[in-house]
Amino acid sequence: MYNAIIFDMDGVLCDSEAIICAAAVQFFKEAYDVVVQPAEFEPFVGMGEDRYLGGVAEAHDVTLSLETDKVRVYTTYLELIKGNLEPITGVHAFIEAARAAGLPLAVATSADFMKMNGNLNELGLPAESFAACIMGNDVERKKPHPDIFLLAAERMGIAPQDCLVVEDAVSGVQAAKAAGMTCLGLMSSFDADTLTRAGADYVAPDFTALPDDLHIW
Known about the structure:
By secondary structure, this protein is of the alpha/beta class. 41% of the residues lie in helices and 13% in strands. The chain has helices at 17-32, 49-59, 66-80, 91-100, 113-123, 147-156, 170-178, 192-198, and strands spanning 4-7, 14-15, 86-87, 105-108, 132-134, 163-167, 182-186, 202-204. A 6-stranded parallel β-sheet has the order 5-4-1-6-7-8. Strands 2-3 form a two-stranded antiparallel sheet. Helix 7 links the parallel strand 6 (163-167) and strand 7 (182-186). Helix 1 packs across helix 3 and helix 3 packs parallel to helix 5 (113-123).
């Protein structure tokens, strides 16, 4: 039983990884005439766009103008998601059930406001409908450090050990466990073994197939 649920966003609320990857590939080609492959971004999934773009840029000896370049990537991304951003299966029903049970809900994403706001609005889950929304630039240390989840718990007034985190990325699972929270790993970006090795207490393919021993309310 838990007193609050904290959701990562990309790969947890929505299936966005392929879209942000396409926007980033397009950006590197148009802005720097560099051809990058989608697989190059995989090590940086869940770490926020600073590292997502920056890690690939370093491998190609590209020096980014990070704030300007992120806006360019996000602008392309927000165009691509229109009518194309799929919610993770069962997420709306899960959130409705959690709210009916009286659980406060938070979003803790490594993304910046522009991407978070665009995603949540496209999903019909606006930021103001959550008890707290924490973004990557709200904390100095990013996942796998626990800071973003600890701040979400603090904003909700809930003890960390009473929170369930829903994550899809290795760095996010590690951050949740470092925060002293229980973690449900969704297999939208990594397989069950990888998430379990990272420390996930439970794993599931989506919100319609949760483990029988995960008692949320």
